[in-house]
Each structure stands twice: as structure tokens, then as C-alpha cells.
Amino acid sequence: MPIIQKITKAGKELPIELARYLRRQYPAFVTRNLAELPTNDVPVFMFHTVEGDAFESQLAYLKHNGYHTLDADELYRFLQGQRTLDKPSVALTFDDGDVSWHQVAQPLLEKYDYRAIGFIAPHYVAEDTPKTQGKAWMSWSQINELHRSGHWDIQSHTHYHDHIFTGSQLVDIHDPSRVANPLGLDTPWIYQEGGEYSNELPKGHPIYAYSSRFESKPMYLPNASFLDDCIQKANSTAATSSNSRDFKKTLKLFHNQQVKLHKAGRYETQEEQHQRILLNLRTAKETLENQLGHEVQHLCYPWGIGSDLSVQISKEAGYISNYWGSVRGRNQNKTGDSPYHICRLKDDYLLRLPGEGRKSLLDIFKAKAKRRSQTLDIY
User: Fold this and answer.
1) pLDDT by residue (tens digit) across 238-258?
2) Which residues are paired to 69 by β-bridges?
3) How would DSSP label each residue in 141-153?
4) 183, β-bridge pairs
5) What is the largest distance, in Å, between two alpha-carbon atoms of the chain?
6) Can you list the pairs that 68-72 forms with residues at least 24 positions away whose Cβ atoms lie under 8 Å?
7) CATH classification (class only), 37-160+295-359
8) φ, ψ for residue 199, nearest 5 deg
9) pTM: predicted TM-score of the whole model, two decimal places
10) Which of 31, 74, 304, 360 has its C-alpha lying 20 to 30 A from 6's C-alpha?
């Protein structure tokens, strides 16, 4: 049976992966049964929250099959042609700063003597060491502990990891009690009265079309008095409505009526956009350098999404490489490739690397479909 038919039968939850497969955006070791990894290619894998059994099986696979791990400077020098590799090598990158890095990943990296690159968004770092065993942000003391261990290369994930409004199309009404992501990364950021930048939105705040700040669409800035009217209506409606569907329906009708009465908003200027992105990137870099005492020169885009403008501004902010998710026209990281367009694969595909005990592509897609049917949280 053709692999496409097999993957389709594995589940409907994989449209992005299927699209990437059809566009040939996966490296050859994923789609073909290669006997060995080419020495001029370094796969870069992306992790978020870490689960012990799964992560240990991945590290054991790498160790058993003779793989080496690179930090960000080593990968940069490889891309620049300043370093040759005498054994198959990969980079293990971790996004955000979840406490599982400290509790789960660090002991295993130490056990297998491997290194990881950790991309931190400083705004979210906890003041105190979290007591919870669930998802939570690491504290600076924990991040420093990872840095001192020698198994972590801590770099920048921007300061805010922000979504922003990019259009006036209403897509939802904010209800803080129904935000699914426990790390708080999905709520868009806005400039509130007085210029404060925040994603702590009140109940009833309109949610417009949004995307990553670093996709570099200009930010849509709703009219403040218009927002106040919507939020006040939400507060009065919340007291009388016990049904969330009725609540949102009422507010959307009110919102659409108010659009006819107000100037709903404007878009930021090119200069505002440039300066805000630059401040975001510089603040992350400077905060990490002050906290950790080492130079931070490598940037990872939130959600793996960047743009030509973001690359340009990252250079201005002092970064020498950018990590993405999928990169159009590139599915490998080879000597001579731009360090500003490093492509990454989700960690599921690590067990497709050439070696004894590798998994089939069908088994990997089946496992992804099963996991996604059980949870909507990808972080």
C-alpha cells in the first residue's frame, strides 16, 4: 500500500504533516530508509515539554547508534564551513522554558552525556521555584543550574513569545476560564491604556485575527473606547448568562453593532513595527546575558515562524543565527546554508534517523495521531 494511503488511515489529525510530506519538506532520512546520515547534514529536533520514558528512549537510540549532539555555536560553525564533523550529529532544541527541562530532561542529558539548546522567553521566567509537578515555568535559579551543568546552551526565544492581532476580523470573545494552554502562550498581546504591553486580557475582550509577532504582519490596534464598551457589555452579560455559548453569541452581536458606531482601530506604522520587534529581541538577549553571564547570539522564533523582516531586525539586535520550524525550500542544514534559516523537525522524527531500532514512518504518524486525539496542548 502506498505510504500516503497508509498515513491517511493512521488518522485525520495530521494535515500539516501530510502537507509537508507531499511538498517534500522532510529530509531524506525521514522519507527513505537511509543506511547512514550524510556527514554534511545536521538534523535539528524540536522539543517542548519532556516526558521521561519517551525522552530516554530517544537519547538511548542516539547513544546506541553513535550520534553526537551540537550546541548552537558548534552548529553555527558547521554551517559556516568552520567545523567538520567526524561522526553523525544532531542538535536537540527545547522551546519556551517548561519546568520539565529541569525535572526530567536534565538528569537524562547528564546520564547520556548529551547537550541541548534551550530557547528561553525571559518574560515568563518564574520568580520562585515552582512547587507543582505539572506544567509550569522554570525559575532563574533553575535555568542557571541548567546553564552551569554544561549540558545546556541557553539562548533566546524572544522576550514575550507573542501573538498579536493582525486584522479586524472578530474570531472569538476572550474568556480566561476557557484558555486551554497552561503556560499562557496562546492569548494575544495588546498595548493597554498607558502603553503597557500585556496578554492578561479581561473577560469579554474581542479576539481578532492573530499570528506570531515575528511573522511580521503589522499589528492591529483596536480603538480603546470601543474595547471598553465591549468589555463592559461582557461584564453585565456574564452576570445574567450561565451558558458560555449564549454569552459569546450576545457579545459578538453587540460587537458587530458597535463597529458601525466607532472607528474600530488602526494598524501600527512600519517604524512602530520595526522598533517594537527590535526592542523585543534586544530585551530578551540582554536579560539572558545579565542573568546567565554568557553571550547570547542565537534566536529561535516562537511557533517556528519568522520572516525576512524579522531576520533583518535580528541581525540588527546582534543575533548570528535564527531557528525556525519548517523553512520553504530547505529541509536540511548543510555546510554553506544560511544560519538565519535553520530548519527543525519535531522530536517524533528522531527515531527515523538511520540506525538499529529505527521506527517506520507509519508508526510515527500513528503515534502522533493517537497523542493528538487525547490532547490539544502541543507545548
Assistant:
1) 555 545 666 667 777 777 766
2) 90
3) HHHHHHHHHTSEE
4) none
5) 69
6) 69/114, 69/115, 69/116, 70/42, 70/115, 71/115, 71/117, 71/153, 72/117, 72/153, 72/155, 72/297, 72/298, 72/321
7) alpha beta
8) -115, 20
9) 0.90
10) 304
